[in-house]
Every structure is written in C-alpha cells, then in structure tokens.
Amino acid sequence: MLNYIWAGLIIISVVFALYKDGEDLYDNSYRNGETLSVQIQGIPPGYADLQDPGPISVSVKISPADYISFFDPAKDMDRVTRGIKSANVWDEAKEFFAKPLPAKLVTTSRGRELQLAVPETLPTPFNVIYESTKDDNDLLPAYLNEWTPDPDTPNLATASIKFADVSFVSVKKVSSIMFVKANAAVMFGIGLMGVIALWMGLMKIAEDAGLIAIFVKLVRPILGPLFPQIPKDHPALGLIAVNLAANMLALGNAATPLGIKAMESLQELNKEKDTATNSMVMLLAMNTASIQLLPPVTLIAVLGLAAADLFLPIFLVTLVSLGVAITAAKLLGRMKMFKKTDPMRPNNPNAEKGGAA
Amino acid sequence: MMEEIRIYQSYFSAVAIPLIVIAIPLYGMFKKVSVYESFVEGAKEGFKVGVMIIPYLVAIFVAINMFRACGAMDQMEQWLKTPLAFIGFPPEVLPMAIIRPLTGGGSAGIVADLAQEHGTNSLITQMAGTMFGSTETTFYILAVYFGAVNIKKTRHALPAGLIADVIAIFLSVYIVRMLLG
Questions:
Q1: Interface predicted TM-score (ipTM)
Q2: pLDDT exceeds cutoff 70 at A281
Q3: pLDDT digit string (tens) for A106-132?
Q4: Pair (A157, A226) in one structural domain
C-alpha cells in the first residue's frame, strides 16, 4: 500500500509539473520574448551615445493597464493565477503598480539592462518571473529594448523592456525541493535524537523500577482486547498505555519517543522483523486518531484564546475517530490480503528463529 | 468558564512534564534502581533510533514535498471544490484537509493563515483548528514509528490511519457547525 502511495506521489509530482510547464510554454504564460512598455524617469540626455555610462539610478513606472494587457487576462490566465488567495489578482496588480519601482540602469554584455528592486510581495504572475530570474542581489533584470525620450519632460523616456525567459518553473521547483527536503529530513532526525534519548532514558528507569509492570496491570482490561497478540504481563501493553496517555494530554514532545519505545517492545514479539504486526498497526492507528483531552500546544500558540472554544469539538471528533481507527485496524486486519502477510500467522515460513513465541 | 479552562490548561502543560521527569527517578530510587545507569542505558537507544529513522524520514519528506511543490494540490482543490460545497464542506478548509495527513508544520501554517484572513473566532478557522487538533500527521507518524524498528512492510497501517483521518476531517466540519455555528 505504502509502496504505491509513495511511488505515486513522486511520479504524479514530476508528471504533473511537466504537464503544467508544457501548458505554460504552449500558452507562453510568462510572455517570453515579448516586450512591455514602461516609463523610465531619470535617463540623462544623450544616454544612448554614451559608451560606458556606469550604473544610473532611475525609477521605472509600469502602468497597471499595460501590465494587465501584457499578461492578457482575457486569455485563460486562471491557471497561472490559481492558488492566489486574493479574489482578483488584477486588482492586486493595479495597487502594486501604482508606485514606480526603483531601478539601476546598467550596461552589460547583453546591452542596456534595468535592474529592478522589487518589494517582497509581488502580484502573480510577476512574482514567478521574479523568482525564476532574479540575480544574486535579488534584483530583477529586464533588458532595455528601446527608449524614446519624452520631448516635454526632461529625463523621462518611454521604453520597452523584456524580461528573461521563464520556463520549466514547476519542474525546477520539484527537483530543487527534493534535495532541500532530503537534507531537512536528516537534520530533523538528528534534532529528534535528544528528546528521544531523554524519554527513552526515563522509560528505562520506569521499566527497571517496575512502574511499567504496574501500568500493564492497570490497563490490561481496557487495552488487552485491542492487542490480543501481546502475551499477559508483557511490558509492551504498559508502554502503549503511556504513549496513548501522553498523546491524550497533548504532550507532543513526549508522545513520539514513548510511541517508539512501545514499538520496540512490540518488535520483540514480532516473528518477521520487517513486517508490521497487527498490534503495531493498531498502535499506529490509535496514535493517528488519538483522543485529545487537551488541544495541542501548537494550536494554542496559533489561535491563542480562541483555541479554548475548540476543546469540546476536538474531544468529540477524536472520540469518534479513535473508534473508527480501532475498527478499521481490526477489520482491515481480517481482510485476506492483510491476513496472509501477518507475521504472527501460524506456520509463517518467514518467521525468524529467536522471535518470541 | 472558558478562560478558567485555558488557565488550568496552561498550568497543566507547564507542570505535567517536569512532574513526570521528577517522579520517575524518584520512584526508581525508592525501588533501589541505579537510576543514573538505567537512564544512560536507555538514552543510548535514543541515538540508534534517531539514526534509524532518518532514511524513512528522507523517503517521506521528499515524496510529500515534491507533491506539494508540483501544484497538483491546487488542481485537486479546483476539482473537489464543487462536489464538497455540495455536501456542506467549505472550500476554504479544503487545503487543510488535503495537507493535514502529509505535514504538521504546513497544516499549522494553514490554520494561522485562515485565522489571519477570517479571524480567530470565525467558523472557518474553528473548523480548521479542530481538524488540526483532532488528526495527526499520519505519514510522519508512520515513518517515525515504523522507521524506529525498521518495519518496511506496513500492511494495513496506512489505510487504517487515513480512514480515521478522513472521518475526523468531515466530522470537524459538522461538529463545529453544530456546536459553534
């Protein structure tokens, strides 16, 4: 199951990104090679004749109407602008381009070039062009095609500019995120080590002191029927109870290491070490749908006082979903396809020696 | 009333963990366990586990974030909007429903986002908050819990977890509307 979902996620991602980029290329969504007319304030007279004028500070005014007709909302821009919260991305553009943008006019090997300094939030699809073509100094380069000085106003010129070509935005994004997140996963795992070590250490004391055994006796009547494969007096049941309790009380930091500890205990009973037993599946299902007596700390952090109203709804929802999780784990476990992979099935040919009976 | 609950809640979470941290070694000493040795013994395992789960985390993180980055989710939203609105599911919380089993941080971000846009006391935010509070990041739990003991064949764990998630997500909408709407 996980095999298909995992491969599915990756394959869909790449295929979808390619499809989207193909569509963008076909529609020329980012107007590659097309020119946008702007007004530039600050071009000194005779600029065209200067050989190496050095950088000149100018301000560039893009009229909202020009911007909008450049990207032509009459064409189906819905796809490009989708996912933007604002109801009307073109209104956003109108507001954004009301002010001129500061820029530097420089001469590069490619000719005269504007380097636009843009604020952080840009209207779509301008932001995509910016994100994919910005230079090392976070400036947006735009090639100056031609400019005509305004005869009436000094230093003002009407010009047409061209942005760098933008293509394969989605594919680039998908492939770069791959490496970023692979790294992030490693850092995350390392970051967890400390907390896991702390709780595992404490649990080891609890185990050696016989606390877990007491717990096992306490929860046996409730949890026993859900985990029929755990032998009587095995510490696994106690550890499961501790994990579930930490979960219910929203002690997120503690719950994960305790869950791992419980899994390890269940693994001792497992006859086929790379396959999940019914008890493991049950523990996992109960964890993903645990009853919450208290809302998680993150939620309180995000919502503040308003999180208090959510106590009761969260409790009720989790009460039902826990029931659903338990039922699903039990019923699915009885299905033929899962039954025949049960490591605890009698006469399992893959059973390892040394696995507890 | 709510204010009081909130205060007790904050007291509780402030005190619960330190209390447990004191109580366990204390009981251990009472039972004549060499607590320091036991602790170190147990903690050693923490590092093994930390390293063990990394490959599983890489697999899950990469696949999920590729999926988020490719834009298929926006497309999914577009397709699901109308049929879901038909059964009373507000489209604003749809991203939450899709992301929740995939990433914890991302879904907390959505709650924050909705709170900013609609206000913390709006029904939309409350629905998303209830979804956040009542479900878990199933894929992450799967990677960590099974990764820690090197389980590669997960059998019916994922379907069972996801079924519970789907039910919780729909229930959140209806229960919030019933209780707070």
A1: 0.86
A2: yes
A3: 888 778 888 888 887 888 778 888 888
A4: no
The model's confidence at residue A357, banded by pLDDT at 50, 70 and 90, is very low
**pLDDT of amino acid A252:** 67
- The answer to whether residues A116 and A51 belong to one domain is yes
Which chain A residue shows the shortest CA-CA distance from B136? Answer: A288
If asked whether residues A146 and A226 sit together in one domain, one would say no
Residue of B12, B41, B70 to mutate, testing the A interface (most A Cβ within 10 Å of its Cβ): B70
- Kindly determine whether residue B46 and residue A198, on different chains, have CB atoms separated by under 8 Å: yes
User: How many whole angstroms separate alpha carbon A193 and alpha carbon A200?
Assistant: 10
Is A7 part of a structural domain of the chain? Answer: yes
Q: Quick check: is A357 in a domain? A: no
Asked if A143 contacts A32 with a C-beta cutoff of 8 angstroms, the reply is no
**Could you list the residue range(s) of the whole structural domain that residue A10 is in?**
1-27+168-193
- Looking at the fold, whether A222 and A247 belong to one and the same domain comes out as yes
Kindly state whether residues A61 and A144 are assigned to the same domain.
yes
In degrees to the nearest 10, what's the CA dihedral of B147, B152, B154, B159?
A: 80
Pair A22, A67 in one domain: no
What burial class does residue A320 get, using C-beta atoms within 10 Å of its C-beta: 0-12 exposed, 13-18 middle, 19+ buried? middle
What percent of chain A is modeled with pLDDT above 70?
A: 93
Strand stretches in chain A, DSSP E: 36-41, 56-61, 101-108, 111-116, 140-149, 156-163
| pLDDT value at residue B148 | 93
Residue A152 burial class via C-beta count within 10 angstroms: exposed 0-12, middle 13-18, buried 19 and up: exposed
| Closest residue on chain A to B60 (Cα) | A6
- Verify that A147 and A52 share a domain, yes or no: yes
Q: How many domains does chain A have?
A: 3
